[in-house]
Design goal:
258 residues; mainly beta; eight-stranded antiparallel β-sheet; four-stranded antiparallel β-sheet; 32% strand; globular
């Protein structure tokens, strides 16, 4: 009986130690993140699974689950770079979001006729053809993609315009265009000190810094809400479950996030 009890205690201890190690790893180094929505297409697709580098920008209380880290401001903080794809805590809902960093402290940001302007200068865009996908429910949430060629029936080809945008520091990335929407023309935003301006690459399908927090957007995000940088996609599945191996997108395994 004693031997069985000792074995049970050792098993419990092993599980506890494993959970503690996993918790420390997740808090200090890398946090798993599953892409639930299409706001970052075509850089990130629904069903992409990646690890977030939490060492990139240092640590704040939002580095821990439930914002439980006893940290004021940022510890070992470093500045993110324009064009980084960043995971952050939403200041209104507390959910984790992922967007691209567009505006740094002191920048002016505006969108005019769908084109991004930074500090009074248009950001160059080159025609990059189209992005095509099947019009069907996507991911575990069953989100339906929006298409520039709507109406499109289920199973049809959903098309979006694609452009390659080059930010002032040389970072190049794709952006998508679906339709003319109010957010294609914005006022001039000035990014305050200690804040950042984020946008989704799927510009017409992203609640980002163009929208106030109380309307579902991100607003000007304070630095303490940064969690980490998305560097590489580890796994990707187009289906409703990662167990549907026939929906795995092996061409996206270990793909760098650019």
């Amino acid at each position: 009986m004693a031997a069985k009890q000792d074995g049970f205690v050792e098993t419990v201890k092993t599980i506890v130690y494993a959970l503690l190690i996993a918790g420390v790893f997740r808090t200090l180094f890398y946090q798993p993140f599953w892409i639930p929505s299409g706001s970052m297409k075509d850089t990130l697709l629904i069903g992409d699974f990646l690890f977030v580098n939490k060492m990139a920008y240092g640590y704040s209380r939002y580095s821990c689950p439930f914002a439980a880290c006893p940290i004021t401001g940022r510890l070992f903080g470093s500045e993110p770079e324009r064009g980084d794809v960043v995971v952050f805590r939403h200041p209104g809902t507390g959910a984790d979001f992922i967007k691209r960093l567009i505006g740094l402290p002191g920048d002016t940001v505006q969108v005019k006729e769908g084109q991004l302007w930074l500090n009074g200068t248009p950001v160059p865009q080159e025609d990059a053809g189209t992005f095509e996908e099947i019009k069907a429910p996507q991911g575990s949430q069953g989100n339906m993609p929006r298409c520039a060629n709507d109406p499109v029936g289920i199973g049809g080809t959903c098309v979006k315009q694609r452009f390659t945008e080059t930010l002032p520091n040389g970072v190049r990335h794709d952006v998508l265009n679906i339709a003319s929407v109010p957010a294609d023309n914005t006022p001039i935003y000035t990014v305050p000190a200690g804040h950042y301006f984020f946008m989704g690459d799927n510009r017409d399908n992203s609640q980002d810094s163009r929208f106030a927090v109380n309307s579902g957007g991100v607003g000007m995000l304070p630095a303490e809400y940064l969690i980490g940088r998305a560097d590489r996609i580890m796994f990707s599945s187009a289906g409703r479950s990662l167990f549907f191996f026939w929906t795995w997108r092996s061409d996206r395994f270990f793909k760098a996030v650019e």
